[in-house]
Amino acid sequence: MLSDLFRPIRIGQMDVKNRLLMSAMSINFGVDDNCHVTDQLTEYFVARAKGGAGMMLVGGGSVHPGGQELPDLPQMYDDSCIPTLKKMVARVKAYDTCFGVQLMHGGRQSYLPEKVAPSAIPAPAVVKGEVRALEVDEIKELAACFGDSARRCREAGFDFVEIHGAHGYLINQFLAPNSNIRTDEYGGSFENRTRFLFEIMDAIREKAGEDYPVGIRINGNDYIENGWELDDTVRLAPMLEKAGAVYLHISGGVYGSTELTIPSMYTPQGCFIHLAEAVKEVVDIPVVTVGRIKDPVQADDIIKEGRADMVALGRSFLADPEYPNKAKAGQLSNIRPCVGCCLGCIHAVLAKEPGSCVVNPDVGREYKLVQAEAASKPSKVLVAGAGPSGLAAARMFALEGHEVMVCEKGESHGGLLALAATSPGRGELGDILRFFSEELDRLDVPVNYNTPLSKAVLDEFMPDQVILATGSMPDMPVIKGLFKTAMDLMTSVDVFTGQETPGRKVIVLGGGMTGLITADTLAEQGREVVVLNRKKSFAEEMSSNDRYYLRERLKKGRVKLYKNVAVKSFSDDGVAFTANGEPVVLDGFHSVVISEKHQAVRDAKKLEKKSAAEFHLIGDAKSPRHLMYCISEAEEAGRSE
C-alpha cells in the first residue's frame, strides 16, 4: 500500500532500504560519567533498528566539551569514546539500518555555566546565562573538532554523520543575523556568516575522508525576527551540494521562535514540508523533510508527490519503535501514536531529566526489558474502568498471557481523556485511546460497557486480581459565596459532556491544563471568558511547548487570565479577588466553571472485603495526575506478575 515510502534510495555511498529516517533526538540518557554510551542507549537504538528504520541518527553528539548541549548526551570529542560506540554500532548494524551520528555544538543554547557563541548575545529563550564571543582561533579550532569527531565516528563504524546546522545551535547562530553581529571574516555578509559551516565540511573531508557521507540539517526558516529565512536556505543549498553534502535535512525554529522546533499537537501535521519542498527545487541530492509527520499515508504521499526524498520521524519512533515494520505490513492501526504532547520527549529533557514518552513508557527501559521474563503463571484479571489507565493495563496483562476482562460503568471508553480530546486542537489525544481499544479487540479482551464493578461481576468472573482504574472527578472548593451565587455553577466535566450549558460570560476557576482547555473551548464557542488561577503559574503539568501554543490560542480568543488569585467572595453575578496583590472586581457574569483539583473515585474498593481477589489502584484512582504517569503505572502493573 505504501509503495513509495518503502522504495530504496541511494545516498552518497549508502544504499538505504526505505525512506524513513529516525531523526536525531537529545534523549539525555544512556551515557556514563564520561559521556560514553552504555547498554541503555544501545538497546534503545537496537529496538528501533529492529523496527525497520532505514536510517537512524544518534542525537547530540558533542564535538567539544564547551558545546555539550545537555549533561547526559554522547561525546565525540575524545578517542576514548570509540570503543563503546563500536559496540553499539555492531549491535545496530545487524538489522540493515544505516547508522549515523548528528554532530553538534550547542553554542549559546548549551546548558553550561560558560557558553560561547559568534557574538555575546544570550539565547532569546529557554537557556539563560551570559555568553562569550568566540575568538577567530577558537572558531578554527571548533571546525577542526567537527572533523576529528567525524573521524571518530568513522572509526567506530558509523555509516555517516549529519552536521547540525539548525535549531539555533552554534552553526545556526553563525548563519543568522540576529545572533551574529561580528565584523570580521565570520560576520556581516552571507559569505562570511556561512564560512564556519564550509570550514567544518572541509575539516570533515580532511580528517574522515573524501568519501565519508556527510548530511546537513539546516533550518528552512528560523521563525524569529532577523533570523535565517527560506530565501537564505535556497541560496545556500546548491553551495552545500557542491561542497559535498550527500543530503539536506530541512527543519525550522530556534529557542524563542514563533514556530517551535518541536511543535505540539496544536500545529498541523507536516508543518515544515513546504520548506523542504522549496529546497528540493534547487538541488539534485536527496532532501529530507520533518515536522509532525506521524501518519504513514501522509509520509508516503510526500515521497509520491516528489515534495521530498525522505521523511524524518522523531517522536513517532519514540512512541512506536516498530513504526516502519507495521506501516510496511499495512498494520496502520497497530502503530502506537505520538499525540504531540511534548512532555516526555522535550519537556523532561530541557529539565535535564532522561527523555521518555507519555504513550510509550518503555523508552529508556529497553535494556531492562530484553532481560525480562514472561509471566510464569497466567491469572484472571478484572480491570474496572476503561479510561487510558484501564485500557493500558488490560492490554499489558493480555500481552503477558493473562485472561483479562474490562468493565466500564459508562457507555464508552476514554474517561476524562476522551473529554479533553474534544477541546480545540487536542483531538490527537483520542489517538492513544483508539490504539488501546483496537489492541484490546485484537487481543480478544472483552470490554463490558454500562457495567460498574459489583459483587455480581466479581462472582461471575472470579478474578485473581482486580485493577481499579476508576479515574477521578472535579473537587468542589469551599469559597465564600460560591454556593449562594445566582450564577450557574458547574464543572469542566459538565461542560465537556454537555450536561450543562454556560452563559455568555463565564468565570473559569482553575488555571491548570484542564482550566485552560476549558477556557479555550468556551472562547471558541464565542463566550467571554476569564480564568482565575490560584497558583503562581498556568498549566504547570503541560510541556512548555504544548502550553505555548495553547496560550497563543487563548490570546486570540481574548481570554483574560489572572494568576496568584486570592478569592474574597462570589456575588450574584461576579467575584471579588486579588491577583498578584492587586484588587479586582468582576461583575455581569452568568456562569462559574470549576476546574481546579480532582479527587480520586474509589467507591469500588469497598468490594475488596467481599472478594478473594487482590485489589490494586492505578491511575487517577490512585492519585489524580498526568497521563504519563497513569499509562506508565498501568503498564508496569501489567508486567508485575
Summarize the topology.
Elements: E1 9-11, E2 14-16, E3 20-22, H1 39-50, E4 55-62, H2 82-92, E5 98-104, E6 115-117, E7 131-133, H3 136-156, E8 160-165, H4 170-175, H5 190-193, H6 195-208, E9 214-221, H7 230-242, E10 247-252, H8 273-280, E11 287-289, H9 296-304, E12 310-313, H10 315-319, H11 323-328, H12 343-350, H13 366-369, E13 380-384, H14 388-399, E14 403-407, H15 415-420, H16 429-442, E15 447-448, H17 455-461, E16 465-468, E17 472-474, E18 488-491, H18 492-497, E19 505-509, H19 513-524, E20 528-532, H20 544-556, E21 560-562, E22 565-570, E23 575-579, E24 582-586, E25 591-594, E26 598-600, E27 614-617, H21 627-639
Parallel strand pairs: 3-4, 3-12, 4-5, 5-8, 6-7, 8-9, 9-10, 10-11, 11-12, 13-14, 13-16, 14-15, 16-27, 18-25, 19-20, 19-25, 20-21
Antiparallel strand pairs: 1-2, 17-26, 22-23, 23-24
